[in-house]
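Before surveying the methods themselves, it helps to consider a single example record, giving the amino acid sequence and backbone structure tokens:
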Amino acid sequence: MTIAVNTRFWQDDVLEGYGYFAQQVFSNMAMQQPSHNFIWVFDKSIPTNIYIPKNVKAIVVKPVARHALSFLYWYNIAVPLALKKYKPQIIIQPFGYCSLFTTVKQILVIHDLAFIHYPKFIPKHHLYFYTLFTPLFLKKATAIATVSEFSKQDIITQYKIKANKINVIYSAAKPVFVPLSWEEKQQTQDSYANGFQYFLFVGGVHPRKNVMGLLKAFSIFKKWQQSNFKLLIAGRLAWQFNDVVEKLKTYKYKDDLVLLDYVEEKQLARLVASAYAIVYPSFFEGFGVPIIEAMQCKTPIITSNVSSMPEIAGDAALYCNPNEHEDIAKQMITLYKDENLKQQLVTKGVEQANKFTWQRTSNLLWSTIEKIG
């Protein structure tokens, strides 16, 4: 079988989100399936920092698909034309979009439908695109893969897609997220938190991630506990971050707050492993990778009781209502006061994290391929 894979989010620089997901899954898949051929399709250039197995042909198809017209042309015309000479039986589209014109079978990977539930949290032109094209993509795809049972049921509910067309493949965390020694943790605390323990939030400073709610919760925690704890926020300033920036100017506990912006991957892993706990009170997630990152590092996590997060964290997390900052604070205080609970969450977290591996994701997606191949 010849399988084409859309790899346009793979780049020479640091891979995040969808790009890393695709690289891990399809690199594993190509090596696990040496009797099959793969075509990796890039739109800029072939990255120099990736390993290309012998059964993979990497090609570049122009133009670079980064704005609406070039995007539609690349998916619907350029790529189908370029693939004709390779005659793939299947095209895998891992980034939520697919070609509406090709006659080749396609597997569409959809991570979530956040744009439906929180439309005010994305730019209007993106919302228009998703609203217009997502139902067309879902109808066109031969099979659909998604990263949680929650997202599967959401797709079924919103678009009346038959359940047997959708397969859950889950996701995983990067292997760099591992536990640290006490000395290494102390060094990280010294470098980032003046030697004090800290809560950590990982993710873009974006309305959907609920950073404002976390800031309010931390204020309550500081008021009631009178501790030297810090709050570290590690993530890019994303869309609509100005509200957070303005809030920080008058934030009562701004001396105990460290806004780190983007943190290089290895250092981020150290921050996660050295945190007292990760607090991840997002309003909506299709999977929630920071949950698994924390568990791999033996760091307890407080997360939201909505969307996919209870499914992914299981009984290895403390849960809060993300719409009530008092509830977020309550769980922070609960964890702070109960060392036995903290250790129980760490133990359960390791067991839970072991369920999510790139090998498993790759195998589950391969099962989807076999169903339609």
